[in-house]
Amino acid sequence: MKIIVTGSLGNISKPLAKLLVAQGHSVTVVSSNPDKIPAIQNLGATPAIGSINDVAFLSSTFAGADAVYAMIPLSFTEPDLGEYLRRMAQNYERALKQAGTKRVVVMSGWAADLVKGENVEDVFAELNTSLTIMRPAAFYTNFYQSIDLIKGQGLIGKFLTLRYLGIGALLTGKTGLLMGNYGGDDRIIFVSPEDIASAVAEELLLLPEKTTIRYVGSEEMTCNQAATIIGTAVGKPWLKWILLTDKQMLQALKMARVPGKLAETLVEMQAAMHSGKALENFHRSQAQMGKIKLADFAKEFALAYHKK
């Protein structure tokens, strides 16, 4: 099959491309960065350099493909996250229609349907094609963004984004705390990008007649259990995840100079996590868990932590 993978060499797209190439498919990887060309070619894939802002580029790249994996990179420079996501989704929708693509797998998030104005799945639903919406839970890999703060090089100042409409958190490294307007004993599904890539690879080879939704997770635990696993791996077993009020979280994000409307959206995302509704939807979907546990990822995280 000829398969297009968007997302450059990101946490999902890189292992996805490797897996598809190993299965014998003809894979094209879309990236906006020409410096990625050698790395894409080293995977055995074909690079397509351009922007998802460019509908003509997308349409020509998708032409003749059997399947497309479509993802929208999350942006924290856009003041209105919902408007940005919808604009990018509409670019994909127009390009996929022009190319006549028969099979599309779209990356979304496990709380996408719970945040008002941020769900762009309906844009893709307008496609007259075989469509699957992927709703992965909270990414393991975004803990990497917390390394400096866990080491105590700063107080409140960064937030950790665990994927599109997934998780946001603030850390105060000197006290060994994770903070957010969900946390503590809230139960969360965490997921390895490699498990997501495996699920996407399975879906790309299918051709369901009706639109399907697939939730993806690797392990369920409380936020404090996750903090302990990460903290223990780096020699800080006392690491805790403190639950803030929505108001406290909004104030913290504004202190971090996050634009007002975007900050409100992030707080709403986390509130959906704290409410337990995202977890209920995940269980209702009867999704099977992936293979990679947080303890496995924590070993990789510790190596990166100690190198920095």
From TrEMBL:
InterPro entries referenced in this protein's UniProt entry, alphabetically: Ergot_Alk_Oxidoreductase, NAD(P)-bd_dom, NAD(P)-bd_dom_sf
All copies of the NAD(P)-binding domain together span 7-117
Q: What Pfam families does the record point to?
A: NAD_binding_10
User: Record's superkingdom?
Assistant: Bacteria
Protein's UniProt name? NmrA family protein
Which lineage do the record's taxonomy fields give for this organism? Answer: Bacteria, Pseudomonadati, Bacteroidota, Sphingobacteriia, Sphingobacteriales
